[in-house]
Amino acid sequence: MENLSVQLTQNPKEKPAKGAKLGFGSVFTDHMLLMDYDKGIGWHDARIVPYGPISISLAATCLHYAQETFEGMKAYRAEDGRVLLFRPEENFKRMNISNERMCIPQLDVDFCLNALKKLVWLERDWIPEDKESSLYLRPMCIGVESKLGVKDADNYLFAILCSPSGPYYATGLKPVKIYVEEQYVRAVRGGVGFAKTGGNYACSMLAQSVAHEKGYAQVLWLDGVEKKYIGEVGAMNIFFVIDGEIVTPELDGSILSGITRKSIIELLRHEGYRVTERKLSIQEVAESYRCGKLQEVFGSGTAAVISPVGELKWGDEVMIINNNEIGPISAHLYQELTDIQWGRVKGPEGWSVEVKE
Ligand code: PLP
Ligand code: COI
């Protein structure tokens, strides 16, 4: 790539040992990608440099007014050594949707994708070979103009970080416990719920820490107006299997349009399952539970992959789903998706993208 410079580290770090238990997102590789934006010039000076702290003004817009967006994707190591990405273009397209909402300039999707591939190739030895582990990739855009006035910035920084990571949930593929949040809300239609932006996560932390204290992994958000309709979970979209129908909340602008969500809907429909994207109230879920029709609940996300939900707590009601065991559809989807992501099975055209020199 012509417009991408590479400065190699002089101090390569020790990589995690094979088989070492990797957490999520706490170890970073030797290099990162940076690119600047200045009004009147556009995006420029894309560079791969040694990983480390950067210097920005304490008056940067991202620090005060949360003008920032991010993405989450993974590089997988196939058994035959190939390095694979899963639908990476979708992440940069979604970043542009988030950027538009947060008043951050549009990125050139092809350029970002090629730059990402170059970075991943450089860091390929950091991709864990262990089952369920991968190199988590975190593209991000932040407003860095030094100015306290509330206005979109004139200067931005785009970065990509790489972090060898294990499963998002410490429990791995074991069913997680989810708390239905009734006091706080995450997003409303017309707001920024569909954008992958830091504020959506900042506003979720209080509810999440309360849920953690009560022994729940994450919260399930209800709609911000009536607190009635199901939205999504802290870091994943959510699916319910009710009497043979697979239901997931529709994309109404208040939830993230998950790439895993979209992929599994496509896979399931192709296999003949009935998948419906619609409004789904927590009352309907509870009623279907009470009459024995709630068969499975699972979340989907890049970090979370397919996460079976074993317990849902809504007010005083505790719903134990499928005996707190992984259900057949969740197990099938987990296998099918990870087979495609790790290159064991060829998925639909264009989903698996190989990174080569
Ligand atoms: N919803 C939220 C709030 C998320 O943070 C994520 C993770 O990115 C998802 C859903 C799932 O999206 P994806 O499947 O694109 O990773
Ligand atoms: C992802 O699944 O990639 C996410 O970004 C979720 C979370 C870690 C914020």
Structure description:
Helices cover 23% and strands 30% of the residues. It folds into 2 domains: 4-167, 2-Layer Sandwich (D-amino Acid Aminotransferase, Chain A, domain 1), CATH 3.30.470.10; 176-341, D-amino Acid Aminotransferase, Chain A, domain 2 (Alpha-Beta Barrel), CATH 3.20.10.10. A hairpin with a 2-residue loop joins strand 12 and strand 13. The strands form 2 sheets. Strands 1, 2, 3, 4, 5, 6, 7, 8 and 18 form a 9-stranded mixed sheet that branches. The protein has 8 helices and 18 strands. Helix 2 (88-101) crosses helix 3. The protein is an alpha+beta fold. The mean pLDDT is 96. The site of pyridoxal-5'-phosphate has 13 residues, from helix 6 and strand 15.
- Percentage beta strand: 25-35%
Say what the CATH topology of the largest domain is.
Answer: D-amino Acid Aminotransferase, Chain A, domain 2
CATH class of the largest domain: Alpha Beta
Number of domains: 2
CATH homologous superfamily placement of the largest domain: D-amino Acid Aminotransferase, subunit A, domain 2
Number of strands: 18
Structural class: alpha+beta
Low-confidence stretches: none
The level of helicity is: 10-25%
C-alpha-based Rg, rounded: 21 Å
Give me the CATH architecture of the largest domain, please: Alpha-Beta Barrel
Mean of all residue-level pLDDT scores: 96
Q: Calculate the terminal CA-CA distance, rounded to whole Å.
A: 11 Å
Which overall shape is indicated by the principal axes computed on the Cα atoms? globular
Please write the string of helix (H) and strand (E) elements: EEEHEEEHHEEEHHEEEEHEHEEEHE
Total of helices: 8
User: What hetero molecules are bound to the protein chains?
Assistant: pyridoxal-5'-phosphate, 2-OXO-4-methylpentanoic acid
| Largest sheet composition | 9 strands, mixed
